Amino acid sequence: MSRPCAEPPETRRRRILDAARMVLVKEDLEDLRVDDVAKKARIAKGTLYLYFRDKQALMSAVFSDLSAQLESRLQKASGAPPLDALRIIAQEHLSFMDENPDLATLLVRRDPFLRKERSAAPLRERTGAHLSILVRSIREAVAAGLLRPHDPQLGALHFLSLVRLFKVRQLLQNSGKTPLRSQVQELLDLFLKGLGSPEAAS
Amino acid sequence: MSRPCAEPPETRRRRILDAARMVLVKEDLEDLRVDDVAKKARIAKGTLYLYFRDKQALMSAVFSDLSAQLESRLQKASGAPPLDALRIIAQEHLSFMDENPDLATLLVRRDPFLRKERSAAPLRERTGAHLSILVRSIREAVAAGLLRPHDPQLGALHFLSLVRLFKVRQLLQNSGKTPLRSQVQELLDLFLKGLGSPEAAS
DNA sequence: TATTAATGACTGACTGGTCAGTCATTAATA
DNA sequence: TATTAATGACTGACCAGTCAGTCATTAATA
Predict the structure, then answer these.
(1) Which of A119, A185, A195 to probe by mutation at the B interface, max B CB count within 10 Å?
(2) Mean of the per-residue pLDDT values for chain A?
(3) With an 8 Å Cβ cutoff, are A145 and B200 in contact?
(4) Of A61, A199, B139, B158, which is the most buried if we count CB atoms within 10 A?
(5) B190, A194: Cβ pair inside 8 Å?
(6) CB-based contacts of A161: which residues, under 8 Å, 6+ apart?
(7) The pTM is what?
(8) Would you call A169 and B157 a contact, using CB atoms and an 8 Å cutoff?
(9) For the CA atoms of B45, B60, B112, A104, what is the dihedral angle to 10 degrees?
């Protein structure tokens, strides 16, 4: 019945999560040291284990948290007309990454499709959800004659890999001062029209 | 003056390298255990250190080796007319990955652009070389009016991310019985024409 | 040719350091 | 005082890298 701690458990959990995210990004490694997270969160290591079963659970929580945030943004697209939905999805992805750079680094660096470790499972699941939002939009766009017929899963993966591409480009040239709106346009152009000149045939 | 070993040093080095590659793929982790490599190569751990300074050097050698193989294939494209060059590059990438599946897994999983560890340096360098081959072809294609004007680095990154996309798709649906030729065509179509229907405007 | 010495490639038990997870103790609250 | 949160020193597993010793092979000698 007593709570000697200075803050509510939820807040503390959040602090640990944030610390873990920061450490994960700074280390730029796949792994993190629990001691580092504890130090960053200004708690004892033992305390951390009151909030998370083990390191795996902690890392899973970090990714789960991140992609839940992203997912809630992508929901804005549902209900919009097909192409608008795609534009919104692109925009939300890119702006989300703009607003949380380290997070973007994490999401881009960890490819959820190619990881089999336990810690990646929730992320993969979430990305599956992102995919299904995309797939729906793409199906609709094809039905409306706005996209040429194709395997929607390929289309969705392609779209996501374009998002990834833009983020990679930004990370490479750390200037990255291209305004969001034109990035979105460029992305959609690549997706819809490719790079071939209009008059040429392949 | 004596060579008690049953095989020439070059062969042995190769065996270690192959073992390391296999372990790296099977573990599906970023890391590997030197003991595992030694066991796989059927040599004592100490022997391994006669051929490689340390674990880093071993891993660097693995990636360096892999991308050198790929690079030599991509050279086939040099000299070809712009669009043919792109087709050849796509084809060589995909067929190379078909022939060496675990290697493909490695190359796709490790994103050379986003890693900072020492072991990734040679891979990043090589991929830089791949990029420059691509950039050249793309510049020529733009000059010839076959591609619309754009930042060639973006184009090259886009092309590579399409290659990656196709490999990811294949890894996801492990059936993957799409014939090479049609994959190449599909890739080029995405690159050149995108997914928009011909008559629609964005 | 038979015997012995020299060589160095190869071995694997060992070391030292790292780090995830534990738990006896302490501090805070009711 | 009773209860529970928080602590951090400790443990034990793990693993990269080492190095003193082995022994197959070659060279030298009789």
Answers:
(1) A195
(2) 84
(3) yes
(4) B158
(5) yes
(6) B161, B162, B164, B165, B168
(7) 0.84
(8) yes
(9) 50
Give the Cα separation of A100 and A18 in Å (integer): 12
Whose C1' is closest to the CA of A47: which nucleotide? D6
Residues B165 and B184: their CA atoms lie apart, in Å, by 12
CB-CB contact of A114 with A32 (8 Å): no
B57 touches strand D (CB under 7 A): no
Closest CA to B37 of B52, B51, B21: B21
At B35-45, the pLDDT tens digits run 999 999 999 99
**Of chain B residues 24-53, which have a beta carbon within 7 Å of strand C?**
43-47, 49-50
Specify the amino acid at residue A172. L
**A181-187 average pLDDT score:** 95
Report residue A196: phi and psi, to 5°: -65, 145
CA B200, chain centre distance (Å):
36
Which range in A2-11, A134-143, B129-138 is most confidently predicted, on average pLDDT? A134-143
Contacts of B150 by beta carbon, 8 Å cutoff, 6+ apart: A195, B142
- Cα-Cα-Cα-Cα dihedral of B149, B154, B156, B162, to 10°? -110
Among A156, A94, A106, smallest CA distance to A115 is for: A106
Q: Where are the alpha helices (DSSP H) in chain A?
A: 9-27, 34-41, 45-51, 55-74, 82-99, 101-109, 121-143, 152-172, 180-193
Find the residue closest to C27 using CA and C1' atoms: A4
What whole-number distance in Å separates Cα of residue A10 and Cα of residue A18?
Answer: 12
